[in-house]
Please model this.
Amino acid sequence: MLRKFVFTVALLLSSTFVLLADEGMWMIHSLNEALEKKMQERGLELSAREIYNSEAPGTSLADAVVSLDFGCTGSIISKEGLLITNHHCAYSDLYRLSTPQCNYLEGGYWAYKDVDEIPIEGKSVQFLRKVIDVTEEAQEIIKKGLPGIPSVGARKLAFHMEKKYEKESGMMASLASMWGGSKYYICLYQEYHDVRLVAAPPICMASFGGDIDNWQWPQQKCDFAMYRVYTAPDGSPAQYAKENIPLHCANPLKIAKRAIREGDFAMVMGYPGSTDRYSSSFEVDYKQTVTLPLTNEIRGERLRIIKDQMNKDEVVRLKYSDKYFTYSNVHEFQRMQKECCDRFSVVAKKQELEKELQVWIEADSARAARWGSLLADLDKAYKESAKLARNRIVFQEVMFRSTPLAVIATRLSAKGSRWNDKEWEAIDLPTERRVFDFSLRTWYEKMDEALMADCHKELYARYQGDYDQMVAAVWDRSMLTDGRFAFADSLQRAQWADSLANDPLYQFFTSLKIARFNDLTLSRQLQDLNREYKQALYAMRLDKKQPQYPDANSTLRLTYGTVGPLAPADGSINKPCFTYPAQILEKENPDVYEFRLRKDVKTALKKALRGKGHWGAGGRETMYVNFLSDNDISGGNSGSPVLNGRGELIGLAFDGNSESLASDVDYTLEYNKCVSVDIRYVLWTLDKYAHMKRILKELEKM
Model:
């Protein structure tokens, strides 16, 4: 759930609405009468214009939904700019603010006074204000070029058009391409740069169950955090300044007062990062059989080493928590994505679609002239790429992704003697030595010897393949692992710079370039073929009047569905579709970090079971912690508001389920689920655990 380049897409819907209503991440600006009617039949009590209306700013739900730097989603829930999102979206901020003496990840953070709200350097939020169809303009530039630039690629096109529309509108502009350039849109955003941390529960609440429960059901996570957006005194966007004031929001989201029930309508609005449902069977098969098995194997072992060290040392845990949190989430997603694609026969499903596509292509001479050999060309290109993939993956995983010192060495080789002391302070050398040991063994066991550098061959020969001696000779004798070099002043580093050329670790990481493992001609061919495939598939569905939604790409989307249970892999049904505070206490285990609770959290939960309150506390199953719905979401939807039929906030989306992970490339009917934290559990945490009375009073004004 990361910062991304933004590419947008568009939505075409017809009256012959044949897709299942719960499938699809629909572009917010293209909601039409057919979709509006379907949603109302399922329980929506609003009109499409009450959801999004660029002609009447401040009147629709979309005006309160924001992107957090196109990595997560948030929503404004008070007229004073209070923003709510997921805790895991705030994780990196909490990590950077934490010290061993004051660890906001472990202890949480609560701003009991407005002056306690902490400015987050570099953080911004974006409000979508308008979407403009610029397809004709973009395609004309691509066809004719720009003055002095006869050939315009994607980046030059985006730079030119974004600059133009930013000058005209005074807002941030992002050019968005869909279906391989079949459509283009400019999205205009109002961007605010003064964002301050307000509240975050301790990690034992926010991420109870940790990676063990990640992508699973049931879960019991209090996955929320709060920020506040500030403006200049005149209400305009501004960088942080002491005199700034909270953003005035005319139409914040309202919090639902009634508890949700199974079967209720649920709608998610947010910025899903990316899906690839317009990918071909050849691309999916390539990932399933060539790239994912090897990358998952290497990354899994590397993460195991880091986690083992984190479990042994709390100082190491603090240093590596942010990196491990990010990498482990990606790894687990890719591992289970492969399993789901195999289980649900995604390649075979796409092959059936391609039979239909080939028939449609051959039915028209113009289409046959353009796309007649497209599928055969894709097949051939991916087979050629597979021959090169193993060595390229090993090179990337060892030389770029193994240890931070690999990145530092590469940067030193490209830009001279540059070293960031903060990078060094975030490194634990014993941990990185273990990672390097594994990486070196991986290099020699999986890389073709013919593609190795001379220094790699010489090292192996000198120590006759004794990996322990090889690691010692490279790691232990390197100045890069010496704190004197890391903290030396610039003059000392300049004096030592000449020695880098002969440094064994520096040589190991910088003796080869990625070009040695790439075929640029083949890479460009695959890009062109994949783009043509998307355009052909889009054109076929358009010709057949089939409604189609675009791949996710960090643009504002809407998905709707129903609160309901999950049919998991074993065929049983998990009912009810809610989890409860009592389950947290039942799963609590002080010997396992992921299920360890702070004493004050445990005490508050026990009181919740005995007491009564308007958050639903009191009794075993009267307050929900998490709930399931069948909304179609992806990474970037983290923190998205989940709304009921009246447009009221009932929860925050924070996860999917393991059975749905093939949906990145193919929607999985009946298995796609969205896991959300119930808003009443959030309010209970603010009230009974954190005693954040000022925030509760602010919300009561709504």
In short: The first strand starts at residue 26 and ends at 27. The chain has 26 helices and 18 strands. The two ends are 30 Å apart (CA to CA). The first helix runs from residue 33 to 42.
